[in-house]
Amino acid sequence: MPLTRKAYRAAILHSIADPAEVGIEASYEYFEDGLLVVENGRISALGHASELLPGLPAGVQVEHYPNALITPGFIDTHIHLPQTGMVGAYGEQLLDWLNTYTFPCESQFADPDHANEVADIFIKELLRNGTTTALVFGSVHPQSVNAFFAAAEKLDLRMIAGKVMMDRNAPDYLTDTAESGYQESKALIERWHGKGRLHYAVTPRFAPTSTPEQLTLAGQLLTEYPDLYMQTHISENLQEIQWVKELFPERKGYLDVYDHYQLLGERSVFAHGVHLCDDECARLAETGSAVAFCPTSNFFLGSGLFNLPMAEKHKLNVGLGTDVGGGTSFSLLQTLNEAYKVMQLQGARLSPFKSLYLATLGGARALRLEDKIGTLHPGTDADFLVLDYHATPLLSYRLKQANSIAETLFVLMTLGDDRTVLQTFAAGRQVHQR
Questions:
Q1: Concatenated DSSP letters of 245-271
Q2: Which residue among 93, 137, 394, 430 has its CA within the 20 to 30 Å range from the CA of 41?
Q3: CA nearest to 272, candidates 53, 77, 43, 410
Q4: What is the pLDDT of residues 136-192, one digit of tens each?
Q5: Is the predicted pLDDT of residue 30 greater than 50, yes or no?
């Protein structure tokens, strides 16, 4: 294959560590006039334009963005493909919302044509919003995952997804069995896991919708294929937590249900965790598991406020999730806008550099992919974004008043949305142009 090399010149910013561990100043690298060099889908150099330009081989094209910021692609650690058509559904908290809106919407994915159509819309929305990697729930139907992976493979995206396993406490038209859920998941793993940049996640929806037999088989899949992911929900809503206690009276808490069935581990991601206690955070951290913080959803469904300082205290890996359709936006910039408010309501602050970390390197660490995505380090996949300082008249005017990269970043995260994303690149290829 011939060598393809291209360079991108702009202000460039990326996280290199968690501010909670190293302090804000040591957590990022910023190049006011930077250069990013991409070769064959990977980043080959990053630095000051003045230092790198003289060494560029003759003929290498340099794309220059004088009014933009290049960052790593955003990473969404919790989102539901089949709920795209019901974003912004009115008036319920979690359990009623599932029965009233979610389950009927997900039933449509029995039709492969519908699955293909929504997968296409869903991926375009992710890329328009600058999300280059997502951890995705399908529906109970294998065709939802086949459609998503086929669409992601065409664009060589790094994506993780799984078929929902759900064999009780849901409508008959939307349940599998412990055995069929296991067999269908296994067939999808054999077909897609490790193909290109695709990964499979074992996906029991949440403890109340899986029997002990199904949870046992979910754990068995993780043993049979050691590098799989596992995704589910935990401690999102108080009514849900009470229900889990009633269904599993022999377990000492919600997390203990998953622990008992051997679903905790380095590639396990638990969505929400709004009502986790100290001991549960400690256990998640001890097993290398991660939590997806989903502020727009937690506000919209009235679930509560995620305690990020408690997670930090336990050195628990935390990524950011849009949780569409409980969440109301595919934009991780908008999600960070809400995350800031979650912290404000708890008397804490969310620095823009911690926000950047959550949307990029923090998500990569939650997914154990920090050697491949989440930063702009040479050797990593060339998944990156160009954020436009002039995306809207208000943003353009407001950024003229910004005196530092910290202020610029914060304004992008409070006023920014899909319009801010000028271009999205995955494995060095442009996959979105506004």
A1: HHH-TTSSSHHHHHHHTT--STTEEEE
A2: 137
A3: 77
A4: 999 999 999 999 999 999 999 999 999 999 999 988 899 999 999 999 999 999 999
A5: yes
User: Minimal CA–CA distance to 155: which of 123, 113, 188, 191?
Assistant: 123
pTM of the model: 0.96
pLDDT value, residue 90: 81
Neighbours of 221 (CB within 10 A): 19
The pair of three-digit structure tokens given for residue 95, joined into one six-digit string: 């359990």
d(CA 337, CA 330): 13
- Tokens standing for residue 345: 């309501």
Cα separation, 105 vs 399, whole angstroms = 41
Q: How far is the CA of 117 from the CAs of 24, 113, 411, in angstroms?
A: 43, 6, 35
79 residue type, one letter: I
Strand spans (E) along 281-420: 290-293, 317-320, 384-388
| CA dihedral of residues 183, 187, 190, 196 (deg, nearest 10) | -130
Q: Interhelix angle for 352-359 vs 332-344, to 10°?
A: 130
Beta-strand relationship, 164-165 and 198-204:
parallel
Hey, what are 42's tokens? 């990977």
| Least trusted range by pLDDT, from 94-103, 211-220, 391-400 | 94-103
As a whole number of angstroms, the distance between CA 389 and CA 412 comes to 8
pLDDT tens for 343-363 read: 999 999 999 999 999 999 999
Residue 411 · residue 398 · CB < 8 Å = yes
